[in-house]
Give the backbone structure.
Amino acid sequence: MIEEKTLMSVGYLEKQNLTGSYRGMRYLLRKQGEKDAPRLGVVVWPQPMNFENSAEESRTETELEFSKEGIRQAAQWLNEQYEAKREIWDSARL
C-alpha cells in the first residue's frame, strides 16, 4: 500500500517531480497548471518504462488540489488504481 508519508511534501513538489513504483505500477506526481492556481498531476503506467518512454495510451492520469489534502488524495487514488488494474501491474512484473 502506498502511504501519504512516502509521497513527500508540497514543498518538495514545488521544486521537483516525484517518481516511484509499487509492484509493477509506476507513478509520477508533479506540479502543473497556472502559477497562481497550481494543481497536482498524478500519473500511473506499467513497468518497465520510465514516463518519457511509456506509451501515452498506457497512462492513466488525474489532477488534484496542490495541497497536503491533495497529496492525501493522491495516495488514495494510487492505491485505487493499483487495485483496479492489478492484473496489468502483475503482468508488468514478470
